[in-house]
Amino acid sequence: VRIAVPGRPYTVYVGHGLLERTRELLAPQLPKGKLAVVSDSTVARLYLHRLVGGLGGLVSEVPTWTIRPGERSKTVGAARRLWQFLLASGVRRDGCVMALGGGVVGDLAGFAAATFMRGISVVQIPTSLLAQVDAAVGGKTAVNLPRAKNMVGVFHQPAAVVASVDVLRTLSPRHYRSGLAEVVKTAVVGDADLFDLLEERSTDVVARNCDVLGEIVARCCRVKGDIVAADERDLGSREVLNFGHTLGHALEEAAGFRGRTHGEAVAIGMAWAADLSTVLGHCAPAEARRIPAVLRSLGLPTSLRGALPKGLPELMRWDKKARAPGIRVVALESIGSCRVVGPVSEEELHASLERFHSGGAHEP
Ligand SMILES: NC(=O)c1ccc[n+]([C@@H]2O[C@H](COP(=O)([O-])OP(=O)(O)OC[C@H]3O[C@@H](n4cnc5c(N)ncnc54)[C@H](O)[C@@H]3O)[C@@H](O)[C@H]2O)c1
């Protein structure tokens, strides 16, 4: 899949068994200088030997930096240690960082590469579904500040992306489902045929059938690539990628980023956004109902259990993507087509959250 970002287009290679073929795939794109690999300990144990083997003829020795898995490794301190490692390993301006892992590794390694010596090349080798369909494409890199996710970062497009779908077999069911939520989002905002595929082949999707996964990852990269190419710096049209994220992010924040995964929160957020879109008259109810239905078939939640978290509208307002007054949301027009609407008033928001919470949204 070609990502046509103006000035620095790149290719996303999607398939299976690609780790072993990295040298052949990447030879034209790789800079001449020293390579270093960044991974997390879980992914490194499973796949580092395959990647290094695949690079075999290119490098005799691959310096590798391994972080602890998880969001807590995405810090400024971790970036500083990585910069020092790159320096000590002899990586210079003509060098390259290979990010082998999920979105955490991709964001941290991308950020370190973007800033080390004012920016060196990065190749993304995403190993989680979320990273293959979303994080590895688009050039956003970041680290977290305490209680402020992705607060420090830069745009830095990769030189290439290698998404080998066979590695998704070892992903935990929870992380796999979390990635599926982003797949559904991508289909909803830009690919009605992908949505049909998810509906028709949900059993194969859940079973991680390699052929279906290849199709899904390639289609998602194409949709995201087109959106990113039109709005690289997230100043306008890229906003539709936030479908389901206004409520999703607020739910994560209300729970202190514990409990639900990001994907579960976004799934609930998408079910709500679909319902709100019908209430606001942007979308026919039958069309909107396909969203919670497909999410459920993929094992994702679509309703809010227990008490409605306090202060949700405020958390949605303080979402960094929101603009006062009221709240802007990404609304559904039809599957495959969304647009930003608003501001939605606080009253409308309250009413729709209450309706969604009480289950009114799920009645035929
Ligand atoms: N840059 C972007 O545009 C963008 C977009 C979306 C999300 N993100 C970021 O991505 C991060 C979340 O990404 P994630 O869900 O991949 O999290 P992650 O990187 O923490 O990976 C999830 C877990 O799965 C493990 N794992 C990864 N691949 C595996 C495999 N093939 N087999 C077995 N285990 C594997 C990891 O070790 C980790 O424990 C967040 O920090 C988020 O901010 C960035």
Explain what you see.
- The chain contains 14 helices and eleven strands.
- The chain has 364 residues and is α/β, with parallel strands linked by helices.
- A hairpin with a 2-residue loop joins strand 7 (140-145) and strand 8 (148-155).
- Helix 3 crosses helix 4 and helix 6 packs across helix 7 (192-200).
- The longest helix has 21 residues, at 210-230.
- The two termini are 39 Å apart.
- The mean pLDDT is 92.
- Bound molecules: nicotinamide-adenine-dinucleotide.
- Nicotinamide-adenine-dinucleotide binds at residues 40, 42-43, 46, 69-71, 74, 101-105, 107, 127-128, 130-131, 134-135, 138, 140, 150, 167-168, 170-171, 175, 178.
- Nicotinamide-adenine-dinucleotide (NAD) is lined by residues 40, 42-43, 46, 69-71, 74, 101-105, 107, 127-128, 130-131, 134-135, 138, 140, 150, 167-168, 170-171, 175, 178.
pLDDT averaged residue by residue: 92
Shape: globular
Number of strands: 11
Head-to-tail CA distance between termini? 39 Å
Radius of gyration equals 20 Å
The low-pLDDT segments are none
**What share of residues is helical?**
40-55%
* Biggest β-sheet description: 7 strands, mixed
Give the ordered list of helices and strands.
EEHEHEHEHEHEEEHHHHHHHHEEH
Which percent band covers the strand fraction? Answer: 15-25%
Structure classification: alpha/beta
The helix count comes to 14
What ligand molecules are bound, each kind once?
nicotinamide-adenine-dinucleotide
Strand order in space, largest sheet: 1-2-9-6-5-3-4
Can you summarize this structure?
It is built from 14 helices and eleven strands. With 364 residues, it is α/β, with parallel strands linked by helices. The structure holds nicotinamide-adenine-dinucleotide.
